[in-house]
Sequence to fold (150 residues):
Amino acid sequence: MILLFDLDYTLLDTKRFKETHKEPEYKNFDKEINNYLFPETEKTLSYLKNQGHKLILLTLGEPNFQKSKVDNSKIKKYFEKIVYEPKNKAENTLLKDLSMGDEDIIIINDKKEESNEMQKVLGNKSKIFLVADEGYKNISELIDFCQKLS
Fold:
């Protein structure tokens, strides 16, 4: 199974990050980025990877900024592929490529509309695991979700 993750507001507490690091101070966050990962994120990613799932990160935003966040985080090592999308995830070639494969896909994201658009590209083999827009739905719940689909 392929697990397609978003970064901001999904794995990373971006709201708290923005409250602490106002622009243009974003440049000084490198050593602190791991402090903004949601609880259980690393443990959950490690577990899912060890279960044989393919983890992919598709993150929306200014590519250099997103890359800096990922490169300085301790979760980078769990992803087989990382894609930085500056405009629209649903138009990214990664989704078109994944839609041609046979594997089931779970979209893990905080935005319902964006997830629905991605699902249209990926087709019926994709499911959505939506984290709460305001606040945090425990990412460890994803383990149960994956097990139910297996």
Q: What stands out?
A: The helical segments are 14-20, 41-50, 63-71, 93-99, 112-122, 141-149. The mean pLDDT is 87. Residues 9 and 135 are 8 Å apart (CA to CA).
